[in-house]
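Weekly sync notes, structure subgroup
Attendees: PM, AL, DS (notes)

Item 1: joint prediction request from the bench team. They want all four components modeled as one assembly rather than separately. Inputs as received:
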Amino acid sequence: MNADQILDEIAKLPEESKELLKSKLTEVHFPKGFILLRANKVESGIYFIRKGIVRAYAYQNDNEITFWFGSEGQAVISMRSYVEGLPGYEDIELLEDCELLKLKMSDLKSLFQTDIHIANWGRRFAERELIRTEERLISRQFRTAQERYAALIETNPDLLKRVQLGYIASYLGITQVSLSRIRAKV
Amino acid sequence: MNADQILDEIAKLPEESKELLKSKLTEVHFPKGFILLRANKVESGIYFIRKGIVRAYAYQNDNEITFWFGSEGQAVISMRSYVEGLPGYEDIELLEDCELLKLKMSDLKSLFQTDIHIANWGRRFAERELIRTEERLISRQFRTAQERYAALIETNPDLLKRVQLGYIASYLGITQVSLSRIRAKV
DNA sequence: TCATTTTTTTATCATTTGTAAAAGGCTCCC
DNA sequence: GGGAGCCTTTTACAAATGATAAAAAAATGA
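Output from the run, pasted for the record:
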């Protein structure tokens, strides 16, 4: 996935604004296992995934909980750092070798002040993330673990092939043993 | 709560832009029990709560699930209508007589195209809602029902006084019986 | 390829949570 | 003051999920 595709997917931009935004992107590569963002740290960058898959996780007491997966086209970002300037709660780990586009939050935020198209692009970005987050919340509140697993297979069959079941169980909010039981039933 | 307070709380606006936005607000009153937004309908308005408390709920099979409460200062909005132009999943019911400020999405969206300050205000609005939603999701994924109840008392003691426990149990993702058990323990 | 490590499944038991039904409280209105 | 209706709590039982341990399967690396 290239920069144009990623930016356009969020919201169409006039050519001039898009070039402006693209000029702030730099390509970076990191290997599988690399920790891209750190919990309890104010992060200053946003990354867009050109290739690869990542997970966000945090600790509750002593056990690690995976609560997000990102793959091609998605933005890797500590929302708390981005929106509130506070340390985030999540580590982001690369589950494959990744090609990423890096954007400094400070660059983006100055563009917001001077280019109305980019300000609206940023608005669309937040709105899309909001809808995604709301859908995850509703899925969690309304569906049983079994239904959530079925929905995941439906909407994101890739994930099952690329991510180990322990992480998926954690994402679904159940133990790996429970996920195994669910898989055995179906 | 007045319009200035509500708008400023989301993000500061230059006086001129603020007056522009305020000129699009109209005050409306509805009684307790009124259904402000309807599920499966594309909604065209945003409401800000001056006074009162409301809940969002939806149906899963035959049982109703409350998944959001809004009170003074908060925006009542079908995010799916607002962001994607699609029918929302939620009914919004007023739990008290309410004083609301109504804003047409169409008015807001044209201001986004012409006033960069309002575009950034709209961006901040989405970002703040995003953080709130993310926090609810994380609370749900990381905390037990008992911890979520304790957190609710801590951060929102008002709610307990203004909303009946059946709705709160549903919001916490447990049955009213379970909530009773939790309350008995503490 | 074989040995080692990691991941997934299976089995058992303990705990939590849900369902259904009953009882107790509270409020409102006549 | 006393019902009627709604809200909340309690109880008993059933179902689902978690914890732990161990076996089986798959992946990794020398």
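Discussion: Chain B has two domains: 3-141, 143-186.
Action: AL to compare against the crosslinking data before next sync.
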